[in-house]
Amino acid sequence: FVPSFLAVVLFPCRRLLCFVARVLVCALLWRFVFLACARGFPAPPRTRRAEPKHALRAFCHWGGGHSYVLLGWELVYPLLARLRRSAGGEGWGTPEIGCTFLVGSVGLVLYSLLVFPRLAARTGIARLWMCHWALPLLAMPAFPRVLEWMVRAGASSASTPVRLWNYAVQLAVSVLLGSQFISLQLLLNGYVAEEPDPQRLLAVANSYMVSTQALVRAVSPLVSGSLFTLGIGDWKSTFGAALPIDHLALVGLASGVLCALAFERREA
Fold first, then answer.
1. CB proximity list for 134: less than 8 A, separation 6 or greater
2. Cα 193 to the chain's mean position, in Å?
3. 15 near 230, Cβ under 8 Å?
4. Residue 110: CB atoms within 10 Å
């Protein structure tokens, strides 16, 4: 009934129909992964710690959402940067975009080697995981809007304010979200190490985590690219080019922050 109803209602907008169909397929695949996570773990112990099955699902939510947001940003940012100025972009070419990613990568390397170990030792991995989401969740939705305001104000694509804005947002996303791979691995390994038979469970847990991230690598470009097409096409007057970035921020808020808070409350 649902596919037939959507076909009748959304037929005039074939792009939207295709997008909805893709989201439904991706949702089914996503749900299958989380149901599969229930296998391979022993019966839950009667303690205040979260059940191992629930804990693994929580970590898969975190890891999947994190990979979804980071990969989606790496896809949408070049599309937005290359977009012509009249459509909400900045008309950049490959050299400018590559230089921006280089700035983010250098920042991530230095942060991971010099800063992250000290912060993790002082604040704890779980708290650091949630704190690292704060700035990117604010910077990503602000990026296309501030960029559009700069362009309307007459700033050229090669001007210093435009370049600095690109570098600043890319640093926030690459450094803070890129280093989350370390936090996620430490959290997962640390939790499994306290369970019975940790050596076997560690392999199972990491296998499910990698499988979830692999699935997300197929889902994120599909959904983000479709939303970008809708944002600059059929929904331009309503959402504009910011639509795919806004949806990435919402996914990050739900999977990275809210799920982590719920898990932390359950563990308390």
1. none
2. 27
3. yes
4. 12
